[in-house]
Structures are given as C-alpha cells and as structure tokens.
What does this fold into?
Amino acid sequence: MTTALRPVTTASATSDTCGHFFGANVHLLPQTDQLRALHTVVRNRDASREDFVFGAGRIIRMLTEAALNLLPFEPYDVTTPVGSTYHGLRFAQKLIGVPIIRAGESMEAELRAVVPGIRIGKILIQRDKTTKQPHLYYTALPQDIADRQVLLLDPMLATGGTALAAIEVLRELGVPEEHIVFVNFITCPEGIAAVADRYPGVRIVTSAVENGLNEQAYMLPGIGDFGDRYFGTDR
It folds into this structure.
C-alpha cells in the first residue's frame, strides 16, 4: 500500500524571482573553470557511462564537502604526537545520509568516502501516472532520526514535488527544517522556489541552477535522466 502525500503545485519562477533565496536557503558551488569543465563532460549526450560516472562523482564530492560545512561543530581538543594540544572541532550532532531512491543512491559512495561509517536511510517516492502527485512507497530510517542532522540526497530538483514529499516525511518524524540539508546536483528556479517557500529552514546545496523548465518539466539546458545515465539503464 502506498501513502498519498500532500499535493504539490509547480511554482512559476525565474532566476530573478528566486535570487533572494541564495545565501540563506541556497548554497551554490563556486562556478570555477574546473566545475564547468566537469559539467561539460556530464552534460554531453555522447559521454560514455564511465566518463559520466567519473565526472558526476567528482562534483558530488564537492557538494558533499560543501554540505558538511553547513553542519554544526563543537570544540574538541586532541593531543598531537609531540605532546601539544590542538584546539580542534568535531561534528556537534549525529549525522545520517538519506538518498531518495533511485537516483539519490548515486550520491552514497561519495558521502561514505568523506564520512566513513555514516548511517544511511532510504526514502522511495514515485509519482502517480494519472494524478502526477507523489506517493510514498518505502522508508528505512532510524528511530532517532529526529535527533540527527540529515543530508537528503537527490541529484535533480525540477518542479520540487519529490523533494517536498521527502522533506514532509522527515518533518512528520520530528526532524526540524533547520536539520535538513538537501544535497542536489542541479536545480532550477522553479524547484528552488517550491522548496524554499514551503520549508524556508531547509538549506539546498547545488552545483548548478538551470535556466528553467520546458513544457514537459525537463530542465534546460539539462543533463538527461541522471539515474538512468549513472546506473547504465538509459536507452
């Protein structure tokens, strides 16, 4: 049995209308030449799967590092090999990564590489083919999820429907908005507005903001179906 989630209305937005979200809600990776070169690889429709996975992995690692910088830290002193004290830091709260199945699972490996031993939850949400509304099919989350900082993983944020449904699941389990960082590969003004308007406490980390959506709700210039290209199931 599936669970129907709250209906989502696609926001009408442009780069101008979502600009005020940057800094507070949206954290865009520095648009360096290296990042643009990696995007050139993964956006190329003729890229091999090996090149796509490698380039995407590089960018996901950057996103993961940026997301971790947004989490709370606390003072933590250690003794160095020469007997001196280093006044350092450590994460102030327990962490968990929560990929939205299936495309979000492409981001797991890089998160595990940066935070070995991190707990991983799962959320599966799919849209009804008739109503176009998101339905919750499956969750696997720890009982103490409300006490953790959550890195919600999904490479695509287009209309915002899936992201909003996943955030709703976390909120109903007691996770504060301010404890959710949505780690996202590419997004667009419509998706940013949809998430930031409903959940202003959620922070979004992304590597690119597209021009917008076409009539079929595909992002432009776009990247294609991320999950299919990453896992090799594209036709």
Observations:
- The radius of gyration is 18 Å.
